Amino acid sequence: MIFENPAGAPELACNHCGCRWFDRMTGACYECGEPVPPEDVEAYRRALAAFHAASGIRPNDESKEAQMAQRWFEDYIPGAVHELGTVSVTESEIIEFARSFDAQPMHTDPELAARSPFGGVIASGWHTASLMMRLYSVQYLSYPSSIASPGMEELRWPRPVRGGDTLSVRVTVREARPSASKPDRGIVKSWIEVINQHGETVMTMLAANMILRRPPEGDAS
């Protein structure tokens, strides 16, 4: 089934148990093992394309999609810089997200926010992180090889995000370390910068992701 997350983006959930986590190698639900119906995948792709058009997120072009489909641990080169595109946010979206997840007055109440040190409504830092994650998951993590994340470090929000801002995301590969215990994968550490239309940094974070190694010739799917 398809549902909308708090940012309005489409997500897939298992028809059988409702779980939102799928094995990207097999397409099966982690919780119950049921496969994702092909018609759901196609409907999700159509919904995601519509979300891209409405939200301002730049979708990948076909050549980049092909590159993403074949990006494995070996392709995350330390020092490489990836520009992931842009996403815009409105004040109404900021308020809607905050009412559900971070109901502080500077995020939800324009009148009270105007009297705050910020002088108006600002986005929850978690909203900023969610906007970043949409680009990070679509433009940086590769569908067949990204397994999960063991966590993040050094999360900072040095400047507020406001309605009307357009954010860009830049990622630098800090480290790519093969796993000592599981030879089919490695850990990639990535420095993430979120930058507004004025060139100001509004968020930084060091993320870690478990990424599968490239399969032997002919085994990649």
Feature tags:
Thiol Ester Dehydrase, Chain A, alpha+beta, 6 helices, 2 domains, 221 residues, single chain, five-stranded antiparallel sheet, two-stranded antiparallel sheet, globular
Walk me through what this model shows.
The chain is an alpha+beta fold and 221 residues long. It folds into two domains: 1-55, no CATH class; 57-212, Hotdog Thioesterase (Thiol Ester Dehydrase, Chain A, Roll). It contains six helices and seven strands, in the order ββααβααααββββ. The chain has a five-stranded antiparallel beta sheet, covered by helices on one side. Strands 1-2 form a two-stranded antiparallel sheet. β5 and β6 (185-195) form a beta hairpin. The chain is globular, with a radius of gyration of 18 Å. The model is unreliable at 59-67 (pLDDT under 50).
At a glance:
The chain is of the alpha+beta class and 221 residues long. The protein has helices at 38-55, 62-69, 91-101, 105-108, 110-114, 125-139, and strands at 2-4, 10-12, 81-88, 146-156, 166-178, 185-195, 201-212.
Topology summary:
Layout lengths: L1 E3 L5 E3 L25 H18 L6 H8 L11 E8 L2 H11 L3 H4 L1 H5 L10 H15 L6 E11 L9 E13 L6 E11 L5 E12 L9
Antiparallel strand pairs: 1-2, 3-5, 4-7, 5-6, 6-7
